Amino acid sequence: MDALIILCIVLFWFLVLLGLRNWSVYIKEKRELLLHISDVTMVDAFEKKEKKRKQRAGLIDKTTKFADEFADLGQRINFFSVNQDVADWLKKSGNRYELTVARFQGLKMMLMTVGFFHGMFFFFLGLPLSQFGIVLTPLLGYFLPIIVIRQQVKQRQQALRMDLPDFLDTVSTSLQAGVSLDQALREVIRFFDGPLREEFTRFIQEIDLGVQREQAYRNLLERNSNQEFQQLIKSLLQGMKLGVPVASTFKLQAEDMRQLREEQVKELAAKASPKVTLVTTFIVAPVSILMIAGLMILNLLYGENSMMNLF
């Protein structure tokens, strides 16, 4: 019976891992198929995904509209969330839920109030440790929007960094073929998804609306803190003033970014070695020594030549 239970558990986890692998293969093939269809039919491959994002943003907007009632209070109680910092976070996170600074501050206080009543409810029920919940749940509600928005900023800048070299290579190839920069950007961003697509789509829209190119570049700098992306935009600004060919700028920036990424990987690998040694020294080695010592003690007590047999 025990063997059957163990076999079922092993089979269950095997099927779970097999399902996850097949799901990842399906997602990858679906993405490749969408890109191929987009290339052949000149249709935006991520248009449907963009619509879903807008629908989700509209739903969040309806859900968080009650936070406007707490906006004034939230702007007064602004510990760890000064209005200027919040505006910077919203700008660099892409503001996918279309929050204003006032609504963000109100959302923070609204969740704090909900957390307080949540803690009081469990306290009246008499649940264990519920007295701590009266303090902890309001704090969690207050800091949750701050943690989430800062995490979104970090993830967005990291995604921007990962897609940038391939994007630059593709744009550079288009420019060398004689296509203008604006037209190359319009064509290339159709094959990218995420913050890179959002930023250059907004850049093109600003150019179409009559914003000066230099100002549009500076807006890109303000919305993103990624060092590599800022280096690219500053190079484009400098090249625009000095008349440097844009294709060369994109190509050199892509090569520099790949070299920098390779150096960063080596640096992380070098930093990982002392950490592995630390874990081995203070965790693996003591546990192994205790296991060997325990086996020796058990052998002395209960083995064939144990001390018990001497008596």
UniProtKB/TrEMBL annotation:
It is found in: Cell membrane. The chain crosses the membrane at residues 6-23, 106-125, 131-149, 276-302. It is a multi-pass membrane protein. Residues 167-292 form the Type II secretion system protein GspF domain. It holds the Pfam family T2SSF. The keyword Membrane applies. Keywords: Cell membrane, Membrane, Transmembrane, Transmembrane helix. One of its GO terms (cellular component) is plasma membrane. It comes from Jeotgalibacillus alimentarius. This is Pilus assembly protein TadB. Its main location: membrane. InterPro entries: T2SS_GspF_dom.
